[in-house]
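Each field is set out as follows.
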Amino acid sequence: MSRIANCFAELAGKKALIPFITAGDPHPGLTVSLMHGLVEGGADIIELGVPFSDPMADGPVIQRASERALKHKVGLRHVLEMVAEFRRDNATTPVVLMGYLNPLCAMGYTEFAARAKAAGVDGALTVDCPPEEAAELQSALDAQGLDTVFLVAPTTPPSRVAEIAKLARGYVYYVSLKGVTGAGHLDIEDVARKIAALRQQLPLPIGVGFGIRDAATAKAIAAAADAVVVGSRLVQEIEAATPEAAKEQLTRLVAELKAAIR
């Protein structure tokens, strides 16, 4: 059983909290400490963003995080080194790399999967890799026992959800609204209806992200979803904090979110 599957099994119906931060933001030397801070706050799974120069699915908050990381020349190899360092003290919390296809393609899917496995990565979510184009990457990940996490959008038709259901591993990430990360105007009732419909086709846990900014919203989403994904709000916390205070403030916010969904 993968670390992700084991995580959801151990939750036994309780809702998972999946925080996102960008590797290398605000400085590469802080990332592993921030990851441990997420766990101390109650993170069940960590989504770790791979910095990219053209993060088209992300709003300005996460775009700025990628820019800050790229100023320090943080690339995919550095991200894998960060995960390996995290694994020296944490062998249980799943880590999913979230980002774009180009860095994986540049490294080579087979090499990426092998390096990711060796580092202690548990899965990958590439937001610009549709299921129709995922065969080569998924084959490489499957060979290493890594999960391929797919996005499902409000506009995804049932026929395409059926295809994703065949390919997805670990969990499925439902994008709660049309737009980029950090956008507002989240319709909780509409999300609940969409999740109920998706459960008819998807056998995996469903995590919901985009637009979840506080404990109240997280609690409302958790009533319908299996997992709550929070990214932009946490990255804002990092952006506003001093490097010395970032871990403590991040841990506190994650703890508030965890308490809300439980």
Q: What stands out?
A: The first helix runs from residue 3 to 11. Strands lie at 16-22, 46-49, 95-99, 123-126, 147-148, 150-152, 172-175, 206-209, 227-230. The CA atoms of residues 41 and 262 lie 13 Å apart.
